[in-house]
Design brief:
The protein has eight helices and seven strands; from the N terminus they run E-H-E-H-E-H-E-H-H-E-H-E-H-H-E. By secondary structure, it is an alpha/beta fold. Bound molecules: ligand 0WD.
Length: about 260
């Protein structure tokens, strides 16, 4: 297990106990990190506060990633309370439900804009906010979460697939931009996991079944397994890895017929 003791991290994208970001928060806490966690609006505040009782002295902050003033507020608080930042986990994604249900050709201008804003642009905005705090620490590590729907067509994934393609390209451009400051930027492409976000994708149960039948490991993956891969990318063991999309999907991505 990698050691994050003495490190501080920001975790964005916790909705409930099933959230992949919560799995990563638990692993980072176990590895000794001090954490700031965020909740999106009042809707999720109670969930995040309750879960955070399991964390040691967490900083709990509101953050809607579409709101630049809230982004600024998060980094001001982290600067004031924690004095710097070593890692950032980005687990926020959203596409309007109707965009995931309608035929892809019906994708609306607004649905496209919102999906790309929340699911991809937000990584740039958060990286920019984190930059001065990480520079002060001599570097940092940023990890986001993506899905194979960025490269292959999965029924009903639709505009989220386009957003994930943009997110993965964003990882590479940020990695190139921030690498000279010793800030690494990577994505984990997780296999399907039944979370709140996943419940918006109709036929999700069928996707899970496909992985059980066809992934080389003949199973799906768990949030805790994604979290272990995140510990590698966030910690010392991953120090030479950047601009990478690490597949944590029981090998499904390699399958053809
Ligand atoms: O199968 C899966 N669950 C996979 C998820 C497979 C591969 C990748 N992922 C990705 C997702 O696309 C996402 O980027 O992992 C990331 C985390 O997703 P999750 O853990 O599956 O889902 P969830 O627990 O729902 O967390 C995503 C959260 C939102 O929850 P909602 O209530 O929208 O489902 O993203 C947050 C919110 O907490 N979020 C926002 N946070 C700040 N500002 C915003 C926003 N505007 N919109 C959504």
């Amino acid at each position: 297990m990698s050691d994050l003791s003495g490190k501080t991290g920001l975790i964005v994208g916790i909705a409930n106990k099933r959230s992949i970001a919560w799995g990563i928060a638990q692993a980072a806490q176990a590895a000794g990190a001090r954490l700031a966690v965020t909740y999106q609006g009042e809707r999720l505040e109670e969930n995040v506060r309750e879960l955070s009782e399991a964390l040691t002295d967490p900083l709990i902050l509101p953050l809607d990633v579409t709101d630049d003033s809230q982004i600024a507020g998060v980094f001001e608080s982290i600067d004031r309370e924690l004095g710097g930042l070593d890692f950032l986990v980005h687990g926020a994604a959203f596409a309007p439900r109707e965009e995931l249900a309608a035929p892809f050709v019906q994708t609306s201008r607004e649905g496209f804009r919102v999906s790309l804003d929340i699911s991809a642009y937000s990584l740039i905005a958060l990286a920019r906010g984190a930059l001065p705090l990480m520079e002060r620490r001599g570097g940092g590590s940023i990890v986001t979460l993506t899905y194979l729907g960025s490269q292959r067509v999965f029924q009903n994934y639709n505009v989220m697939g386009v957003a994930k393609a943009a997110l993965e390209a964003t990882v590479r451009y940020l990695a190139a931009d921030l690498g000279p400051k010793n800030i690494r930027v990577n994505a984990i492409s997780a296999g399907p996991i039944k979370t709140l976000a996943a419940s918006g994708i109709s036929g999700f149960g069928g996707i899970l079944q496909l992985y059980r039948e066809r992934a080389p490991l003949r199973r799906t993956v768990e949030a805790a397994e994604v979290a272990d891969a995140a510990m590698f990318l966030l910690g010392h063991a991953g120090r030479a890895v950047t601009a990478e999309v690490l597949m944590v999907d029981a090998g499904y991505h390699a399958t053809g017929m």
